[in-house]
Amino acid sequence: MQDRIIVEKLFERSESGLSLLDQRYRGLSLSVMAGILDNTADREECYNDLLMAVWNSIPPNRPDSLEAYLCTLARRIAINRYRYNTRDRRNTSYTVMLSELEEALPDIEGPEESDGRITAVLNEFVATLDPETRVLFVRRYIRCESVEELARRFNMGENAVASRLYRARVKLKKRLGKENVRI
Question: Which position among 3, 113, 145, 177 has the lowest Cβ density within 10 Å, counted as fewest Cβ atoms?
Fold first, then answer.
């Protein structure tokens, strides 16, 4: 209900919508960015970019899930900053996470219609995972949490987390092949 109020305020071009958004989602947004960016100053700057992106995109967009919308924007903004920061050097924590998905995911920098198809297939795939694996998958590849963090959070060994994620990636690769999505 509160998300609907925030979106309505943004549609009215009321800055109180940004204040409410900040109160409710600042921590989550910075957490997503922390999985990608090590530098606190970069995260803060990206968070400000996120608020500007939300202000510029709502309206015309009216997201069904404000949380998912913000996580997606936060991740994209942080990835862009990461790419800018690491053109000549490597940040191993995020590079490792990307390399895990590299073999299973197609290049999604293509046309928008293929991006929508990939999104639909990914959503369907994630829905087929058992609940614990689904949470691990989303926290690792959407919220960018490390395997170590996930192991602590779920009282599991790091190897158990890594194994579940590996099996999920193998299933994802098969699913994308079955759906005829180019890899």
Answer: 113
Nearest alpha-carbon partner for 96 in 148, 50, 53: 148
- Residue 179 pLDDT exceeds 80: no
pTM over 0.85: no
Which pairs count as long-range contacts for 45-51, CB under 8 Å and 24+ apart, including other chains?
A: 45/81, 46/74, 46/77, 46/78, 46/81, 47/74, 49/77, 50/74, 50/77, 51/18, 51/21, 51/22
Query: Where would I find the H helices in 35-90?
Result: 40-57, 66-85
Tokens representing 129 are: 């995972």
Cβ 161 vs Cβ 136: under 8 Å: yes
